[in-house]
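= Paired protein data =
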Amino acid sequence: MSTEITRNNIKQETDNKITVIDFWAPWCGPCKIMDPVINQMEKQFADNIHFGKMNVDGNEDIAKQYKVMSMPSIVLFKNGKAVEKVTGIYSAKQMAHYLKRKLAEI
């Protein structure tokens, strides 16, 4: 299960080779569509990628800091630094391909 990311733990939770944070909201329909995909990716890549989820409700400042303007948005961190953001709905196959490419870069 993904770690709940807050303003208090984002620094420590992204201090990994690769961290993926799912920026979501409970009222966001597309986020609900992506949730099972993210859960599947977490199981598939658990040994190599740290996964977290940040509810943007109440964390608007953090979302703005990472330029999350629409959801769902996935922000990829490498060694604590946000390096890339993808927005929208992706199939499990598309997301797995993306994450495999990112792992190949490290």
Notes: The beta strands are 3-4, 18-24, 50-55, 73-78, 81-87. The chain has a mean pLDDT of 95. The CA atoms of residues 24 and 31 lie 6 Å apart.
